[in-house]
Amino acid sequence: MDKANELAWWQQTIAYEVYPKSFLDTVGQGTGTIAGITQKLDYLQKLGVGALWITPCYKSPMVDNGYDVQDYYAIDPSFGTMDDMDELIARGREHGIRVVMDLVFNHTSDQCTWFQASKESRDSEYADWYVWRDAKPDGSAPTNWRSIFGGSAWEWCEERGQYYLHTFAKQQPDLNWECDEVRKALFDIANYWADKGVGGFRIDAITYIKKPPVFEDGPADGEDGLYPVHAATANTPGILDFLHEFKAAVRDGRDIFMVGEANGVAADELDKWVGTDGVFDMLFEFSHTHVPMGEAEIWCRPVTWELADLKRALVASQRATATNGWYPAFFENHDQPRSTVNFFRCEGPLADKAKVLGAVLLTTRGTPFLYQGEELGFGNATWKSIDEFDDVQTRAQYDFAKGEGLSDAEALAACVRFSRDNARTPLQWDASENAGFSTAMPWLPVHDDYATCNVAAQEADPGSPLVWYRTLASLRAARPELIAGDWQELLSDDENVFAFERTLEDARTVTLTNFSDKNVEYDESLVAGLSVLAGSQGDATPGALRPLEAVIFG
Ligand code: NOJ
Asked: Of 195, 264, 422, 464, which residue is the least packed, with the fewest Cβ within 10 Å?
């Protein structure tokens, strides 16, 4: 048995994230459906996908597009029915694709029956299920924490005469994990879905579940006088005890994986979270996405960065998971602007940029997580006014920017650059009306470029990003060192090139990616004895890279 086959199925495969609202609408309503995902399983299989993470599709008022769950045991009617979901899970397996559910366990919707009962009275059976606190003596909020979406993280509740904590929107009250019944209810939900045969879970916002023992004001970091809730509560000591309990109740004994979304966990803490002594199989940490956006993720506060910063972050994550745990490699998800804009400082064709990132993603060590549209080289969308955005966070970031004294145009520019809606426009399937996504007016506009940038056009173009991604997926499947091999950075001092090698026994591949718009030369001896396996711009010359070119030698 070769080394790659000794790894778990989820380490050998490629994962793909679907944002169901924007994937494919099969009923003509302007928003996507689960049946739409089932319809495209062949498409996903051709990309080498074996794990399909679907962002929340449970019953929800959709204030945060499903991340405000009303009922974890029901599918939202806008997406279809539980039968549709069962069908997707079953058909997926026939395609070698296992569905991965998104567990939103830090908070629920304020419409969830648990919260409705909790807010009714302090004597309710659910009284302790959420994080309730009395007002300060002057009636103001218990602390000056700012929610991640902006504004106070506390909301007054008249019925209870108390405030409740919401790390995100006020319609997303935080659950109280200290309450035994809460943890049991959440583990039951996870087991219900695991019993349905899903392949794993992506666990939302998990670093916020443990609150500090004492709630205190922090130093204001903005004109609003507030202190980020992230700084007050993320990764609070004791969190891992909860998560070990979670793992024992859900993960142990099953052939599934759990990947946590862990903003606030640094690369050097990863060994406590993943691997032999850890609680998850993989952890999305965000050190590389913080490079272009800044750690505080305040969109209107510009950061300057260089490729060296991005390389440092990527290398640190590789090192941290080299001997323990496993890395979920990603450049995009539904919360990030498009990677073709985010990770380049130079101008140049989006298709070339997408191929550069694809080369890194699909040949690095770890499970690659693609996000819908990334394989087509999507760019950010075109936005002309704040009213065009749907996203709750974008509107909050706009208000925050205005509060900081920015003009309308400056606040808009920050949202245009960083809005999560950039990643949420409909997937473009063909050149027909609404890009083949829906026969009705889509909930967010399709890109201006849909007539040329779409799946059908790219399938017919051997030089397209889609064909490149498919080529890389085949290469990855055919070369065990790309899955199981060691990872070592090359050309670490190069300002323009990110390069690394993968080695396993006698096999070696080298990935060279030029993130700049310059011609770059490197020492040919680096690839001595190897030949070109794939070049993003056709024939490649050892020792030289064209602007925005990626070459894989082996
Ligand atoms: C992280 C999710 O990825 C994001 O989309 C959501 O808004 C927050 N968690 C709150 O659930």
From this structure: 195
Say how far residue 150 (Cα) sits from the centre of its chain. 20
Q: What is the pLDDT of residue 295?
A: 86
58 CA distance to ligand 1 middle (Å) = 14
The DSSP element (H or E) to which 357 belongs, if any, is: helix 350-363
What is the number of domains present in the chain? 2
One-letter amino acid for residue 136 of the chain: K
Q: Which residues are catalytic?
A: 204, 261
In this predicted structure, the answer to whether residue 1 has a pLDDT above a threshold of 60 is: no
Instruction: Name the nearest CA neighbour of 247 among 298, 216, 203.
Output: 203
**Which uninterrupted H or E stretch holds 232?**
helix 229-233
Give the pLDDT confidence of 33-60 residue by residue, as tens digits.
999 999 999 999 999 999 999 999 999 9
Among 400, 418, 436, give the residue marking a domain's end. 418
pLDDT recorded at residue 297: 86
In a domain, 408, yes or no: yes
Within a domain: 409: yes
CA–CA gap between residue 428 and residue 522 (Å, rounded): 38
Q: Which two tokens stand for residue 148?
A: 């991640």
| Ligand 1 geometric centre to CA of 392 (Å) | 11
- d(CA 219, CA 202) in angstroms, rounded, equals 33
The string of DSSP letters for 114-149 reads: HHHHHHH-TTSTTTTSB-EEPPPTTS--SS-EEPTT
Q: How many CB atoms lie within 10 A of CB 9?
A: 16
Answer whether residue 441 is part of any domain: no
Residue 313 has pLDDT above 70, yes or no: yes
What is the rounded CA–CA span in Å between residue 58 and residue 470?
31
Q: Which residues pair with 162 in a beta bridge?
A: 157
In tens, the pLDDT along 227-258 reads 999 999 999 999 999 999 999 999 999 999 99
Quote the distance between the C-alpha of residue 167 and its chain's center. 18
According to DSSP, the β-strands at 162-165 and 14-18 are unpaired
Q: Report pLDDT for 263.
A: 86
Q: Name the closest-CA residue to atom 10, ligand 1.
A: 67
- The pLDDT value given to residue 365: 98
Q: Which domain holds residue 412?
A: 389-418
Query: 231-240 as b/e, with b when 16 or more CB fall inside 10 Å?
Result: ebbbbeeebb
Q: Name the amino acid, one letter, at 349.
A: P
d(CA 407, CA 131): 36
Q: Determine, yes or no, domain membership for 322.
A: no
Mutate to test the pocket of ligand 1, among 55, 102, 104, 170 (most ligand atoms within 8 A of CB): 104
Q: With DSSP H G I counted as helix, E B as strand and the rest as coil, what are the percentages for the chain, rounded to 5?
A: 35, 20, 50
Please report, for the domain that includes residue 494, its CATH number.
Answer: 2.60.40.1180
Give the Cβ contact number of residue 407 at 10 Å: 10
Among 418, 439, 467, identify where a domain stops.
Answer: 418
CA distance 103 to 58: 10
Report the pLDDT value the prediction gives residue 532, as an integer from 0 to 100.
Answer: 98
pLDDT band at 266 (very low <50, low <70, confident <90, very high): confident
Residues with CB under 6 A from ligand 1: 64, 67, 104, 168, 204-205, 261, 334-335
Distance CA 319, CA 366 (A): 12
